[in-house]
Amino acid sequence: MLKPAYAIPALPPAADLETVAVLREAARAHRYLAELKGRATAIPNQGILIDTLSLQEARASSEIENIVTTQDEMFQATLFPDGPDGGPAKEVALYRDALKRGYDRLAENQGLLTNNTIIEMFQVLKRTTGEFRATPGTALRNDVSGEIVYVPPQDRAAIITHMTALERFLNDEVASDLDPLIKMALIHHQFESIHPFPDGNGRIGRILNVLYLTKVGLLDIPILYLSRYINAHKAEYYRLLQTVRDSGQWEEWLLYMLRAVAETARQTLELVQGVGELMAEYKRLLRTNHTRIYSQDLLNNLFRHPYTRIDFVLKELGVVRQTAASYLDELAAAGLLEKHSQGRNNYYVNKPLVELLLRMSDAKGAR
User: Fold this and answer.
1) At what angle are helices 180-194 and 251-289 packed, to 10 degrees?
2) Long-range Cβ contact pairs of 242-249 (< 8 A, separation 24 or more)
3) Which one, 190, 281, 289, 304, has the greatest CB density within 10 A?
4) Across residues 351-367, what is the average pLDDT?
5) How many CA atoms lie within 13 A of 134 on its CB side?
6) Residue 230 burial (CB count, 10 A)
7) Which residues touch 72 (CB under 8 Å, ≥6 apart)?
8) Degrees (nearest 5) of the Cα angle 332, 88, 132?
9) Are strands 345-349 and 307-308 parallel, antiparallel or unpaired?
10) How many Å apart are CA 99 and CA 163, to the nearest integer?
């Protein structure tokens, strides 16, 4: 039997949101975010961070939904996108594609984050032409007991009404003087409670977090991903989502999300610094020992694609296949890349970069 539906509130809710504890945690989160935003500008090509970190987020976010893949499988799927359909690695790649689609649309729409963009991201993620839910009967259950814990709005017209109101709140930076990080936490809770799609709501909701931070200028590019923190504290995440619905008490939820931002920003700072140091070392080695082939475009390729191949190099450097192959083989012979074969295809791994990414993704979210 379905439980009575939670009454989706108007935003912002009529509650004391900016408590002393919340404002203290928000200040800490802002401090780390500002440092991350500044540090990211030291990477010469911002696309490197977007591409590399979005895949890490895709993997972590998918794991929350029990879609588990290895780093190797994930990178293989980006190397050979025309491979067999299905499987966790393909799901992860689709998440990355949905995130990038949303970021592109945000720029094209002059900073507006619209429901059309949200629907388009869902369509990319699920490879569908579907839109908001049209069939009643959706209910969220406890994974262990099977008990229904929450029933989102069932009527499509109600879903559209709630999503229209959310779109207005999301894009209106004048009507509310709330701290934008508090607002992000409200938006995330509201989206997850509306649960507008038949599937993929958790992943789309997590994409909205970083797109909103980019929209309001707290980041220049979408490189802060909360999924690893949420995955490390998943039971608390779901408990607090439901606590708000049951009691209308927002403080614990807001503190959780603000801690997630602060800890993730701090950890991402370390990763960005590590990527920058590794790029600088590779640049020194290329300029010293591989003067004939050195270019900034080649260096960017090796870090934009931790697993690269001849096709990527010839496309991004504008060279012929034979030249691209000779570049990669020279770097493999020097130990800067590892050369591998899959069938008739060769690919090349930037092992120090992959190991750096693995150390971050395998570390537990801090408290």
Assistant:
1) 110
2) 242/149, 242/150, 244/189, 245/6, 245/150, 245/193, 248/13, 248/15, 249/15
3) 190
4) 74
5) 2
6) 24
7) none
8) 130
9) antiparallel
10) 19
Cis peptide preceding 12, ω within 30 of 0: yes
Cβ atoms of 220 and 214 within 8 Å: the answer is: yes
Nearby residues of 315 by Cβ (< 8 Å), 6 or more positions away: none
Order of all β-strands in the sheet with 338-342: 307-308, 345-349, 338-342
Residue with tokens 């690919």: 347
What gap in Å lies between CA 225 and CA 320, rounded to an integer? 37
- CB-based contacts of 226, cutoff 8 Å, min separation 6: 206, 209, 210, 257, 260, 261, 264
What structural domains does the chain harbor? 20-266 (1.10.3290.10), 290-357 (1.10.10.10)
Which residue has tokens 């992959």? 354
What is the reported pTM? Answer: 0.90
Q: Whole-number mean pLDDT of the chain?
A: 89
Strands of the chain, DSSP E: 140-141, 148-150, 307-308, 338-342, 345-349
| Paired residues of 307 in beta bridges | 349
- State the amino acid at position 254 in one-letter form: L
pLDDT digits 0-9 by tens, 222-254: 888 888 899 899 999 999 999 999 999 999 999
Amino acid making up residue 121: M
Place of tokens 């995440």: 237
Q: What is the pLDDT of residues 184-194, one digit of tens each?
A: 999 999 999 99
* List of residues 6+ apart from 137 with CB closer than 8 A: 154
pLDDT tier at 27 (50, 70, 90 boundaries)? very high
Encode pLDDT of 153-176 as tens digits. Answer: 999 999 999 999 999 999 997 767
- Enumerate the β-bridge partners of residue 335: none
pLDDT, tens digit, for every residue of 83-112?
A: 555 567 777 888 889 999 999 999 999 999
